[in-house]
Amino acid sequence: MNTNASSVVILAFESLGLSNASIYPMFLLATLTYLLIMLSNLMVLTGIAWSKKLHKPMFILLFNLPISDMVGATAFFPQLIFGIVTQNRLISHPGCITQAFLVHIYGTGNLLILSAMAYDRYIAICHPLRYNAIMSPHSLVRIIVLIWLINVTLIGTLILMLTRFQICRTNLVDMYCNNPSLLKLICDDTSINNYYGLFTIVIVQGGSLSIVLYTYAQILRTCVMTNQSDARRKALQTCGTHLVIYIFLQTNTLVTLIAHRFDNVSPFLRRALGVSVLVFPPLLDPIIYGLKTKELRQSIKVFLQRNVVSTKW
User: Fold this and answer.
1) What is the rounded distance in angstroms from the CA atom of residue 299 to the CA atom of residue 302?
2) How many CA atoms does the CB half-sphere of 71 hold within 13 Å?
3) Domains along the chain with CATH numbers
4) The whole model's pTM is what?
5) N or C: which end of the chain has fewer CB within 10 A?
């Protein structure tokens, strides 16, 4: 079907419903949140890249998380900030497709990266003597390449399937563009797209959940059986924060995607959960992994101190 008409169509998001008095505070809040996300994630990236002591599997896997978080934040916040300032809730169809691609790349990427990090912790805690052999540089490169290959392939196919259709509506039902909201703009039969969407949910979220459940069950078993209380406490503390982030992302993403398939779900709840997926993980990830991980925290501190000293000179 011809899609040339869709390339010049302007789409409209749901109104933010802001009063004149609340425009400036909301603009300030959104801008500061975006800047905080970008700066804190950049600090995590810099801390890992700068310190050779952190060039280990756990931190190299973690290095991918800020990249994914910044992709998600950049896909969402600039468009939102522009909409707040101008009170213009419009976006071009190609712009919406691009935003949807980046949003799904972020969500899928985070789930896959967190799953790989869970596997790394499982090997480190349950098979410490074989850790270096299993998590060798070659294996680490394969894991990272596989993460991004699966991510780009699945999401690229998902978004490309949307471009086959010509849209017949222009009102988006969400605060940002995503596959379900774009599908609702199409009047033709989208059964194949829906089936493929369910397939990606099963593969990404089901596969990720299976990995995390298995690894954490084994970690918990090992921690219960060990006689070293300090090692047990450290392992549970490290894995606990990781698990909280994972459960939050997994639950909100799954509920948001499923909510689009049921008309009786509150649109406000769906939008709130959808926005929370793009705001809280990118905001909390660098704080949790940067401040609670001693080696990374120390690396960031030394980096800042040396740069402050060099700036003074």
Assistant:
1) 5
2) 18
3) 5-312 (1.20.1070.10)
4) 0.90
5) C
